[in-house]
Amino acid sequence: MLKNYMGILMLNEREDNIKSLTKARPIAAIPVGGRYRIIDFVLSNMVNSGIHNIGIFTNTKSRSLVEHLGSGKPWDLDRKINGLYVFDLTSERSELRDIDVLNDNMEYIYKSKQEYVIISSSNMLCNMDYKEAATYHEESGSDITIIYKKTNSGKKDYLSCSTLYINEENKILSVGKNIGASDKINISMEMFIMKKSTLVDIVKKGMEIGYHNSIKSIIYEHVLKFNVNAFEFKGYIKCIDSLRNYYNASMDMLNAEVNKELFFNNGLIYTKSKYEAPTKYFNGAKVNNALISNGCILKGKIENSIISRRVTVHEEAEINNCIIFENCEIKKGCKLTNVIVDRNIIMHENTVLEGSDDFPVVIEKKVEPYEF
Prior knowledge:
The chain is an alpha/beta fold. The protein is 24% helix and 28% strand. It is built from eleven helices and 29 strands. It has helices spanning 19-22, 39-48, 63-69, 98-104, 106-111, 130-140, 196-209, 215-221, 223-226, 243-252, 256-264; strands at 5-10, 31-32, 36-37, 53-58, 83-88, 116-120, 124-125, 144-151, 162-166, 172-177, 185-195, 228-232, 238-239, 280-281, 286-288, 291-292, 297-298, 301-303, 306-307, 312-313, 318-320, 323-324, 329-330, 335-337, 339-341, 345-347, 352-354, 361-363, 370-371. Keywords: Nucleotidyltransferase, Transferase.
């Protein structure tokens, strides 16, 4: 168990290609799998690995995220010693850098008793045990270890992610950017393992130099100076940095093998419980290969779809390859294919919408129930 490790989650991921789902929430708070949020995966991974001191640095759109996290009880982080800490990334500076944020909250880092730290973003969807990577880091004697994934789909997935060039001894020689030129590449999962003292030195160096925007940019630019090693993760992973990747990752969850690996392989994925009543299936309802959450009322046809809590699907409605968020109502005669319906949407009777795998139709979130 990694009792000598603390976790830091930097929730400043780029949202350029997924803005339709992040206008009122960060990527970390996007619902996934019916009743989870994206942040649940990295949080659960850390807790399952024995990390119980986790600091989350979030942005100004954090209301739904903070509400979801609460005191950290679902992840056993409501503790008197250590636990869950949430820091708001608001700043009076014209340009916000995670170097500045960490420097402003250095007291939290100094007071933490752990010797090592794992820094991660939230948008790498996977189920992993950090213990093996941490053991490798300590035995290698490197200053920093970056967790990465070998992929054969670099031309269509992981676009704009960082690529690692690694020698036979697992030393990182340089870092580039995936522009879709090759299928076989090494993708950085933006998970960094180092001593806490190393992190402090990097933050100080970043403040002195002044032109670096993030911890990772300093590491990537000085991989040879810092003695940076690579650790390969061999399980399923999806980078949620675009609407296409989010949709495809959600559809992958309908595959039994992927579902088992994501939610059970290296420990359970925990989330906030809302204690909903069981879903009610009426006569005439047809459901095939779908993830159905609690509290739903289902009368229509649902296939290859993900249905979140408190969704009502009326008779003669057909839902195929869709993702329906909480508190939505799909009225009689609606036909939806490759559609993402965000929260509080009421689909008018006989509405017909059809997207594609690469370009799903998105009905954006409303604060109050809104009839579309």
